[in-house]
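$ ./design --mode recover --in tokens.txt
reading tokens...
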């Protein structure tokens, strides 16, 4: 899962990024409201950690514009302002939760887990399963029947995204944004290489699913014709 941290205090932003990545998330950082809004509007994030006091655009404005654009990504607001009126304003503008600085890292992580659990496709924290193929999030293992294989981080992230969107077509562009990030220089070829790796591993475990190429569009994870759906 990918988290966007919008925080202008560089040391705190780096700490939050490290905390997220140490706990299995991929995290990007923006240091002002305008850049944060641009990144959040891409729709590639599962959770946004949003500071209130930001340069260029304050957190309340970022949140309002995000919701006005129809973006429903869960937002956890972070602020040093503890007044009830500020919390009410944030929640009224569409925030999902509100933490006052300083906060305990364990509480922050619990909030992030709670927000992702509200999304139906992310409720199982340990594994995903489709047509007998199981993706174990704790061990980065892909298995089917008695066979299993370990995935690299990029392979795991792509496989997770395909399983979360099973039977739906994911464009190469969406995979690049979601897996490599908004500012990455990765190209279509990077996606093609990792899709090839995943196909070989699905064949190795004799999976009843395949990654189908939709020409000029992207990829779709689907059951093999002879496999029950």
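writing sequence...
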């Amino acid at each position: 899962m990918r988290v966007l941290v919008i925080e202008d205090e560089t040391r705190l932003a780096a700490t939050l990024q490290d905390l997220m990545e140490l706990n299995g998330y991929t995290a990007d950082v923006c240091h002002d409201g305008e850049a944060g809004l641009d990144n959040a509007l891409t729709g590639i994030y599962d959770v946004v950690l949003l500071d209130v006091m930001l340069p260029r655009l304050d957190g309340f404005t970022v949140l309002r514009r995000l919701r006005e654009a129809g973006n429903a990504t869960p937002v956890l607001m972070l602020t040093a302002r503890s007044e009830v009126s500020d919390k009410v304003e944030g929640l009224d503008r569409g925030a999902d939760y509100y933490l006052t600085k300083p906060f305990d890292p364990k509480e922050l992580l619990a909030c992030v887990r709670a927000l992702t659990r509200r999304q139906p496709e992310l409720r199982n924290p340990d594994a995903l399963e489709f047509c007998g193929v199981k993706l174990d999030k704790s061990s980065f293992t892909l298995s089917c029947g008695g066979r299993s294989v370990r995935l690299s981080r990029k392979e795991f992230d792509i496989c997770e995204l395909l399983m979360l969107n099973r039977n739906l077509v994911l464009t190469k562009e969406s995979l690049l944004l979601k897996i490599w990030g908004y500012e990455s220089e990765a190209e279509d070829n990077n996606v093609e290489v990792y899709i090839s790796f995943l196909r070989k591993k699905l064949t190795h475990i004799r999976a009843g699913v395949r990654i189908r190429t939709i020409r000029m569009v992207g990829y779709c994870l689907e059951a093999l014709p002879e496999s029950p759906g």
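exit 0
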